[in-house]
Amino acid sequence: MEIIIIGGGIGGLTAGAFLAKDGHNVTLLEASNEWGGSAGKFSRGKFLFPVGATMGMGFEEGGIHHRIFQELNLSFPALALDEIMRVYHGSRVMPYYADRNRHLSECSSQFPEYANQIISFYKEAWKIGAEVRKLIKPLPVVPPVTFSEWKKLVLSLKPGTPGLLPYLRKTVGDLLKKHGLDEAASFRHFIDGQLIDSMQTTSQDCSALMGALALDIYHEGAYYTEGGLYKIAETLQKYIEDNGGKTYKRKHVQTIRKENGRWVAVDQKGESWRADHVVCNLPIQGFVPLLPEPLQEQLPAKLVKRSKVAQWGAFTMYLALKETVIPPYTALFNQVLSDRSMTEGNHLFLSLSKANDTNRAPEGFRTLTVSTHTELHHWDTKEKYDQYKDTLTEKMLSGIERVIPEVRHGIELQMTGAPLAWERFTKRPKGMVGGFPQTNEYSLFNSLSHRTGIDGLWLCGDSVFPGAGTIGVSTSGYHVYRSIVQK
């Protein structure tokens, strides 16, 4: 079987690696200069920067990345973190520990007036999360479309699964209220900080099931990977090549059509490729316009409607810093929260390279990637773009000073990545990142399937179930592989 994969992000690379392993003819076309998409990298002189955050999940035994690399007979080094991150909120500095008991103890110390309610909230959230993990361990497809997918979902049910039903339409906000925490503004803000990074929404709207899973999975294992998560992408790309596949950069597909019963993909220079299947590892906002109208009309109405929905953008700062300005024992991952919303510099996520990680910086230096969510309408004219870029840069530097007070004195190199840069380098429409928010409107049975409804045309990536993050996109790539080979 001949298979074209459009998009060299981790989802497409996962699908391609397994298809190549099974002996299929895989051709992977990536529009940019790097593998990994939003988890890619770029270099400036002697410094290397991960494009986005670099915290790894799913490397624990039984985790999706552990399972993928094990099945491919590959190894991938990742350093487990005892302190997952450090959270800065006002005068509060809170370590976020992987160990559950230490985390509960820290929460009780930080929010003593709500200690009992917080413990009961976490115990319920973790119980929900554990049941969801059991349910998804066999990697069932949601929403199921075919008989085999329904069968697999039914066979995935566990004795504790019925206990999840009361939470199906609830939000994390409902759980907080149940435990008397709806008025605990500081703790709720802390929870929102965790959810916005993983679920792309806050407790008010986040699905209770998905939110509980996110809060639970932090304690299953969080990891630092030398260099960054782009190493996953490069490992999978090499695996494809080693198993007979072909991978190309700077092949920006402009159209996908069908000719004589076969799929044809055409790039920006008019070069074309033919195959039995096409796998699109693209945001659906970029996927739908690639199809001629007759094919668009065959797509599910939900998919077409959702392709017109705008997602978050990201504003990112990239700093190369002198080691001397970084305080001893600074955590590798940090959040800085203000008392306002979770966007526009009021919530920062900092990813600092480990000392002596020479993949990212030479001795005496470290690199820092800092990101915040932003609404795309702030960037829709050149005048607004230039002015807002300066405003947000200064605001973010002030936030970084909360973690590294002398940061301005140690900057060797400083760059920013606004939505237009994200669009230019990752080819994501308007710089959209992160997939759809995991609200009840968009998650689980309301999410999009990897099936397009058109024979031989597939989707993976952060637009489809189970959503964003390397865990989510890897799972979607595996679903595509399994569907193509009918496993």
From TrEMBL:
SUPFAM superfamilies: FAD/NAD(P)-binding domain
InterPro entries named among the record's database cross-references: Amino_oxidase, CrtISO-like, FAD/NAD-bd_sf
Gene3D superfamilies per record: 3.90.660.50, FAD/NAD(P)-binding domain
Pfam families: Amino_oxidase (PF01593)
Domain Amine oxidase: 10-478
Database matches in PANTHER family: PROLYCOPENE ISOMERASE, CHLOROPLASTIC (PTHR46313:SF3), PTHR46313
Official protein name in the record: C-3',4' desaturase CrtD
Lineage: Bacteria, Bacillati, Bacillota, Bacilli, Bacillales
